[in-house]
Amino acid sequence: MRAYGVAMRFGVLGPLAVWTVDGLPVRVPEVKVRALLADLLVHAGHPVSADRLADDLWGDRLPANPANSLQTKVSQLRRALAPHGRELVGYEPAGYVLRTSAVDVLRFQELLRQAAENADVRGKVALLTEALALWRGPALADFADEEFARPAIVRWQEQRLTAYEDRAQASLLLAEAGTVADELAPWVAVHPFRELLRALHLRALDAVGRRREALDSYRELRKRMVDELGIEPGPEVVAAHQAILEQAPVRVRTNLPASVSALVGRDDARDTVRRLLETSRLVTLTGPGGVGKTALALETARQLEFPDGCWWVEWAAVERDAPEAVLVDVVLAALDIRSGSLDDVLRSRLLVLDNCEHVIESAAHLIARLLAVAPDVRVLATSREPLGIAGERVWAVPPLPESSAMELFVARATAAAPEFSLNADDEPTLAAICQRLEGIALAVELAATRVRALGVAELAARLDPFLTLANGKRDVPARQRTLRAVIDWSWELLSDPERAVLRRLAVHADGCALSAAEAVCSGEGVENGEVVDLLARLIDRSLVVVAGARYRLLESVAAYGREQLGAEAVRTCQKHLAYYLSLAERAALELRGSQQRQWLSRLDVEAANLRAALDFAVQQGEVDTALRLVNALAWYWFLRGRLAEAVRSLAAALALAGDSRYRAETACWHVGIAMLAGQPVPASPSIADDRARWFFGFVRSDFGDPADSEALVAEALAAFQASGDRWGMAAALSTSAKLASIRGDFVGMREYGEQSLAIFAELGDCWGQLQATEWLGEVAEIHGEYELGRKLGRDALAMAEDLGLWPQAADRLSWLGRIETMTGDFVRARELHERALRLAREQGYLPGQAFAEMNLGCAARREGKFDEAERLLTGVLSKHPDPGPARVISLAELGFIAESRGDGRAARTFHQDGLAAARALRDRRAIATALEGLAGAEVVDGRVEEAARLLASADELRQSLGLPVADRFDADRISTAIAISGG
């Protein structure tokens, strides 16, 4: 391929796109010219006749001179692709051809081929992940309706789905079921009858403890296939369903990393720790670095079962002496909980808290509090020193016995050099080596990597004098001196570039991607292109660990590397800060578009590095950089519900001295998120820009007078329309739909919601679509359009699950259950509400718990289960003493229960309280409901005329709002009661 073939890159896996080799977009004007380019790309380097192109472009409306018109479009395309247009768009006897291999779909297909040939499961997952990341949305989205594009689009989409299935199968082998369950959910919704996809999703749901969801999914599929297709599910789905039914207890979610290699020589130790956990709620494994505390804790946890799972929390990346609040954030993130109090969500779990020693005071205080408030939680901690709190059982992890150390040495030496085998003559020498290394697992592993170069005898000869001379500090225990000596020795054997990469890598928190390693570790003797090879050498020496696409250092090696930085430390941390600032600022753009899910996941993985970068910026007093970083991360924190972390980080940046043009934006984020978090709100700042104005209006729609919010949102919408900010327009329209709901403008609510949804869908922003769908779903429910409501609810649920927005997923489940209550399917309603309640509790999402419990009460009341309904609804009232939708509806339902029992006085009290709460909210729909309830109470007491008057007032109010009579809570029952009573 000549050089012009890669002078530009072309994209069809999404809207048609062209970029320069530097990644800059190339504009191809005029629809027909873009269609011509799309047609040539669809034919993948094969010539297309002029007649075929003309027919594709104009169809039945051919111009008077098709050949000339086509030539004009070809010339326009060549000009758009200048200076390589003529070479790229060529002409051959068979027709026009686009001469390039730089097309994203060709790269996609090549990666699929490589994945199919790759026998390594992790390698296969990595290749498929890279391939799927090339997709920017539906293929050729702007030409999806064109006949010439449809066959290719169908073919590429099938390849995409197959790639998702292949990756899911491989990921399940790697115990990554959580990722698979979340990833496949939206595809199952779109392709419900694709059976391999469904079978994989069932297996993944079951593996992460969502067994009921898996069973619900199978039942839904079977019903649809029988009803709509007249056939039963195929063998793959049936087998997955049967496996779920046959297994014993439901497996629960966990984040314990999969075991990479067998734990050698620790069977007795593991059994001892298990027995200690049976009798003690806190067990702390102590010992020097490298002795194997973490490996033993993880292996023990993998053998245990707790009702709510075993969860691993890594504190090594947290700043030394970090406050307790930071540790709480890390625990919540590890538990995949977005909001709420840690005290409320622990229940019956095992927490494995790793590396407590450098945050010992905060860790001890937090663990003591958690053990006090969560009686069923147990903690397995690792630390170089005891925590020193009541109830702690301390167990010092012993070094490996000589035989186990030798076994570990041989296993690691064989992994590093497959040709290695231990001769009988070498056994005494190896025993002496392991004895000298004092059975410290990390020291044994590091020494074993040198066998390939030295052999056993030479290793022993070099090791003895080194340990004698290089024992490090004399004021630490002998075993710690031994480990340090081995790391010293490994360090001495490295080249200068290898040492540079190792010590610079140590500034990363909890590992890093290759791009970060290249950015931070290159320079001053290390070329950027050399970093990957140097990392490979460090991996061979067991100094760097690679997991998936991330590189990390063992804690002891990381501490050693930071010591070696010396005067280079600040300079390296500056590079680390610059890289993660750039990453965050790019993410701030990508989080408002089609790559939202990928960038949420990427920032989740990099949370520790982003926190470390901010800490460094604050410590150095770099006010501009710190403010830029928190501004870039604010939307991520909001989407993930990490409001406490956001408020604390924004406040830390604002506390820095110095003028900065970024300060006003930070202040806006700080006030808005503090309001959402229920924290004391700082003085209102000046509005930084139009998006800040919208965000203020969005936040204030839940606080205070809705009129204040309406003014802010209206101003922001006008500004967005004037500037052409499509995302801003969609966000403001969605908030306008919410405000329309509050004031009872249901026509406006639908119009705003539909406009918002259309723009967010065009942008590919799933969070935005979720927001807009919420209000459209409410309109559908109000007007009795239950099928539409179900579809919107399911779409929203899929989006929430896809993004990992579990509180919103809980709300969507409740709304779907509410529709089933309205249509009389109380069994299905209960299943949905119970799923919602379980998820809300798991997330510590108190409003979601109240919403689910309220809806369970509504369903129970309609079933005639009054005692159960009363218990649930009374519980909601106790949790929500202030006026709010949950309180208003609960009061109405309790009033209806009292009315059904013939207690008019109690019914009237409940409905009068509900009326007062509805008026406080200015919620006219709720006012109508309260009037209906009062009508029912009057019927019970025989005051039929008053009942008829109240019901007429309620209906008049509904009519003024454009609401159907079907929106009444119990319209037929109350009307019938009035009629029977003579009204």
UniProtKB/TrEMBL annotation:
The keyword Secreted does not apply. The keyword DNA-binding applies. Keywords: DNA-binding. It comes from the Bacteria. Residues 1-100 bind DNA. SMART domains: BTAD, TPR, Trans_reg_C. Belongs to the AfsR/DnrI/RedD regulatory family. This is BTAD domain-containing putative transcriptional regulator. InterPro entries: BTAD, HTH_77, OmpR/PhoB-type_DNA-bd, P-loop_NTPase, Sig_transdc_resp-reg_C-effctor, TPR-like_helical_dom_sf, TPR_rpt, WH-like_DNA-bd_sf. Residues 1-100 form the OmpR/PhoB-type domain. SUPFAM superfamilies: C-terminal effector domain of the bipartite response regulators, P-loop containing nucleoside triphosphate hydrolases, TPR-like.
